[in-house]
C-alpha cells in the first residue's frame, strides 16, 4: 500500500468512528442493526465492496436494506459478481473490518488482507460498485457513508442506482458482469416480456374462474409496492391492485408484509372481508420474499396461507411437466438428447407434507442447513435447481450447460416442428429462465411466474392450495447458557451433541403420529430453536413442549 492510499484511509475513516460497546457480525442478511449505529459499518462495507471488486476484477453490488425488520433498523450487504451473496470466506474479514476500533488498526487490517489476497491498491485498474437502498429514511445518509468508503480506495467508482428492491440490485450486478444491459428499465422489460411469452404459450381453453382473475398485492409499505406499481403498467392479461405501497402513509413492515403474514397467519392492514376468495399476495420490505394467501369466508382475521413450500411445489410441477413433454420422443443417445438433472432443495423447516408430496411426484429432494447461502449453493449443482424456504424466499437456477442445450434444441425444433408441444415446452422453459431472478429470490419475478403457471394450469388459488395439507407445526425457543453446546448433522436434523439428547428427542417423537422434531442453535442469540410437527396441532404443541423441556434439562440454566 502506497503512502497516498494509507493517508486517504486514515483521513476518511476518522470521520466514521465505530459505536462504543457494539460488536456486529456479517451473516446471511449482511450487517443489520438500529440505523443510528450503522454509519461506521456501512463506510467500512464500502471499503470491503471495493476490495472485492479489485480482487474479482468485476462489478460488485452494495445494498442498504433491513428487509422485513422495523423501519428504525437498517443494514448493508454485498452482492458478488454472480449476483449472489458475498463469498463466505470473506465474511470473517468483513467482521474484523467492521469491528476495528480506530483508523490505525483499520489501515493495518486492510494492508495485511490485501497482501494475503494479492490485491493491488494502485488505481491502475478502475472498478465499479453499484449502490442502492430501499425506502427507509435512514438509507440516504448511510448511502453517503458507503460512497465515502468506496471513495477511500483509489480507482474504485461508486455508481448510485437509486432506490431499488434488493433483488433488482443483485440482478443488475449479475447482468453487468454477464455483459448485458442492466438498467432498471431493462429489468422491467425482461420480466414483462418473458411473462407475456409464458402467458401466450398457455394452452388454449384453460382459464380460472372469473373471481380469480384479479390479484391483490400487499406491498409491505416498502420498495416492492412502488416497483410493482411501475411493472404492472407493462403487463397485459393480469390485473394487479397494489395496497400498502408506502404512498398511503403506512409504516414499513408494521402489520404488513410477507414476514408478518407468514408468521402471524392473519390479514395484513387494509385487507379484510372485501377480499374473501380473492387471490392475494404479500411481499416483504425489500421484495425478496413472497407468500400468497386467501381471506376465508369466516368473520375472523385469520387467513389461509400459501407459503414458500407451496410456491416451490407449483414451480416443480410446471418444470417437471415441461421437461417430460420436451423429452417425450427424444433418443437420449442421440445428439438432441439431454438428461436434465432436476433437483429440489429444502431445509428441515420445510413442512413434512410438502416434502412427502414432492417425493411422491418422483422428484429428487435434498436438504441443506438453514440459510439461503446453503440452499443456493446446493441448487446450483443441478441442471435445474429449485429452492424455497417456507418464508417465501427462493428461486430457480438453470445451469449454463443446460441452457446452451435448451437454446440449441429450441432452434432445432422451430425449424422442424414449429408450434409442436415439444417446441412450446422448450420455449416455456427458456421463458422461465428469463423471468425468474437467478441471482437471488425475487418477489416481483416470483409473483409473475406464479401467475403465469396458474393461468397455464387453469387453477384457482384454492385448487393450488389443495395440492397437499400442511402438517400442524410449532416452533419454540429455549434460552441456554451456551448455544454452541449443540452440534448438528444431516442438514440440522440430528443433534450430535450433547450426548444422549438425540435419543431422548427420538423417544418423544415416536409418541406422536407423523411426529418429526429437531433442534438447532440460533445463529444470533443464546437460544436453541425447537421445531416440531405432528398429525394434529395439539400433538405438535405437546411434542415441541416436551423437547423444549429436554433442551432445558440438558443445556438450560437449571443444568449449569
Automatic annotation (TrEMBL):
Keyword Protein transport: no
Needed co-factor(s): Mg(2+)
Cofactor, how bound (note): Binds 1 Mg(2+) ion per subunit.
EC assignment: 5.4.2.3
Signal peptide from the UniProt entry: none
Residues the record lists as binding Mg(2+): 67, 284, 286, 288
Pathway annotation: Nucleotide-sugar biosynthesis; UDP-N-acetyl-alpha-D-glucosamine biosynthesis; N-acetyl-alpha-D-glucosamine 1-phosphate from alpha-D-glucosamine 6-phosphate (route I): step 2/2
Gene Ontology MF term list: metal ion binding; phosphoacetylglucosamine mutase activity
One Gene Ontology term from the biological process aspect of the record: UDP-N-acetylglucosamine biosynthetic process
Start and end residues of each Alpha-D-phosphohexomutase C-terminal domain: 477-549
Catalytic activity, as annotated: N-acetyl-alpha-D-glucosamine 1-phosphate = N-acetyl-D-glucosamine 6-phosphate
Amino-acid positions noted as binding substrate in the UniProt annotation, renumbered to this chain: 389-391, 520-524, 529
Known function: Interconverts GlcNAc-6-P and GlcNAc-1-P.
Protein name: Phosphoacetylglucosamine mutase
Organism name: Prunus dulcis (Almond)
Organismal lineage: Eukaryota, Viridiplantae, Streptophyta, Embryophyta, Tracheophyta
Amino acid at each position: 500500500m502506497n503512502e497516498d492510499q494509507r493517508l486517504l484511509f486514515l483521513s476518511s475513516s476518522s470521520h466514521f468512528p465505530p459505536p462504543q460497546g457494539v460488536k456486529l457480525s456479517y451473516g446471511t442478511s449482511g450487517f443489520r442493526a438500529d440505523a443510528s449505529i450503522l454509519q461506521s459499518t456501512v463506510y467500512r462495507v464500502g471499503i470491503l465492496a471495493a476490495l472485492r471488486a479489485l480482487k474479482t476484477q468485476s462489478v460488485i453490488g452494495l445494498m442498504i436494506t433491513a428487509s422485513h425488520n422495523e423501519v428504525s433498523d437498517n443494514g448493508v450487504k454485498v452482492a458478488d459478481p454472480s449476483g449472489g451473496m458475498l463469498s463466505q470466506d470473506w465474511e470473517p474479514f468483513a467482521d474484523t473490518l467492521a469491528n476495528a476500533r480506530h483508523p490505525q488498526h483499520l489501515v493495518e487490517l486492510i494492508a495485511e488482507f490485501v497482501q494475503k489476497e494479492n490485491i493491488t491498491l494502485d488505481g491502475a485498474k478502475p472498478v465499479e460498485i453499484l449502490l442502492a437502498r430501499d425506502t427507509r429514511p435512514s438509507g440516504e445518509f448511510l448511502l453517503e457513508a458507503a460512497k465515502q468508503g468506496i471513495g477511500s480506495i483509489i480507482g474504485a467508482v461508486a455508481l448510485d442506482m437509486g432506490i431499488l428492491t434488493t433483488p433488482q440490485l443483485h440482478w443488475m450486478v449479475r447482468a453487468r458482469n454477464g455483459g448485458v444491459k442492466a438498467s432498471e428499465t431493462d429489468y422491467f422489460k425482461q420480466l414483462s416480456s418473458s411473462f407475456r411469452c409464458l402467458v401466450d404459450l398457455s394452452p388454449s381453453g384453460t382459464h380460472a374462474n372469473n373471481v380469480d382473475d384479479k390479484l391483490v398485492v400487499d406491498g409491505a409499505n416498502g420498495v416492492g409496492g412502488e416497483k410493482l406499481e411501475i411493472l404492472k403498467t407493462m403487463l397485459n392479461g393480469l390485473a394487479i391492485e397494489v395496497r400498502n405501497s408506502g404512498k398511503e402513509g403506512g409504516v414499513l413492515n408494521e402489520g404488513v408484509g410477507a414476514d408478518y403474514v407468514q408468521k402471524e397467519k392473519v390479514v395484513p392492514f387494509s385487507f379484510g372481508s372485501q377480499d374473501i376468495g380473492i387471490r392475494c399476495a404479500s411481499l416483504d420490505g425489500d421484495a425478496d420474499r413472497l407468500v400468497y394467501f386467501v381471506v376465508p369466508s369466516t368473520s375472523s382475521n385469520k387467513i389461509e396461507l400459501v407459503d414458500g413450500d407451496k410456491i416451490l411445489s407449483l414451480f416443480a410441477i410446471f418444470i417437471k411437466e415441461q421437461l417430460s413433454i420436451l423429452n417425450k420422443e427424444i433418443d437420449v443417445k442421440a445428439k438432441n438428447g439431454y438428461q436434465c438433472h432436476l433437483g429440489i432443495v429444502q431445509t428441515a423447516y420445510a413442512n413434512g407434507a410438502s416434502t412427502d408430496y414432492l417425493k411422491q411426484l418422483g422428484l429428487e429432494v435434498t436438504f441443506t442447513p438453514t440459510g439461503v447461502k446453503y440452499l443456493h449453493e446446493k441448487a446450483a449443482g443441478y441442471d435445474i435447481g429449485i429452492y424455497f424456504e417456507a418464508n417465501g424466499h427462493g428461486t430457480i437456477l438453470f445451469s449454463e450447460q443446460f441452457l446452451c442445450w435448451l437454446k440449441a434444441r429450441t432452434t432445432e425444433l422451430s425449424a422442424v416442428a414449429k408450434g409442436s408441444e415439444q417446441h412450446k415446452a422448450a420455449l416455456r422453459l427458456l421463458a422461465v429462465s428469463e423471468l425468474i431472478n437467478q441471482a437471488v429470490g425475487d418477489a416481483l419475478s416470483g409473483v409473475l411466474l406464479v401467475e403465469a403457471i396458474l393461468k397455464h394450469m387453469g387453477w384457482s388459488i384454492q385448487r393450488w392450495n389443495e395440492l397437499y395439507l400442511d402438517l400442524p407445526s410449532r416452533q419454540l425457543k429455549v434460552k441456554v447458557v451456551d448455544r454452541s453446546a449443540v452440534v448438528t448433522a444431516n442438514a440440522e436434523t440430528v443433534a450430535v451433541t450433547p450426548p444422549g439428547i438425540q435419543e431422548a428427542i427420538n423417544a418423544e417423537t415416536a409418541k406422536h403420529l407423523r411426529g418429526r422434531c429437531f433442534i438447532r442453535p440460533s445463529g444470533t442469540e443464546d437460544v436453541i430453536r425447537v421445531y416440531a410437527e405432528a398429525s394434529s396441532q395439539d400433538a405438535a404443541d405437546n411434542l415441541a413442549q416436551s423437547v423444549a423441556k429436554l433442551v432445558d434439562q440438558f443445556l438450560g440454566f437449571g443444568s449449569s
